[in-house]
Automatic annotation (TrEMBL):
Transmembrane segments: none annotated. Residues 1-22 are annotated as: Disordered. InterPro entries: SWIB_domain, SWIB_MDM2_dom_sf, SWIB_MDM2_domain. PROSITE patterns: SWIB_MDM2. Residues 15-91 form the DM2 domain. This is SWIB/MDM2 domain-containing protein. Pfam families: SWIB (PF02201).
Length: 91
């Protein structure tokens, strides 16, 4: 459907799209480039799946490996805790 009101396209001002710089600990997993939160989450899930870190008994839990342990500060986290833990490593 065409824009017939002659209004400029609305720009996204969402905080989710603001590029954020990962801490050195998080950069070891996702890379050092500043990227939006949404991309951080995607990259973390790619890493989790690539290294088969989802718990086999309960797929909602993520087991920490040597790179994720400093981010999680424990051996296992639920997928619902993930965003909060990642936020502490973004600026």
């Amino acid at each position: 459907m065409a824009n017939t009101d002659n209004k400029p396209a609305r720009k996204s001002t969402s905080g989710f799209m603001k590029p954020l710089t990962p801490s050195p600990t998080l950069a070891a997993v996702i890379g050092p480039d500043a990227i939006p939160r949404t991309e951080v989450t995607k990259k973390i899930w790619e890493y989790i799946k690539k290294h088969d870190l989802q718990d086999s008994a309960n797929r909602r839990n993520i087991n920490a490996d040597d790179k994720l342990r400093p981010i999680f500060n424990k051996e296992q986290v639920s997928m619902f805790e993930l965003t909060k833990l990642l936020s502490a490593h973004l600026s």
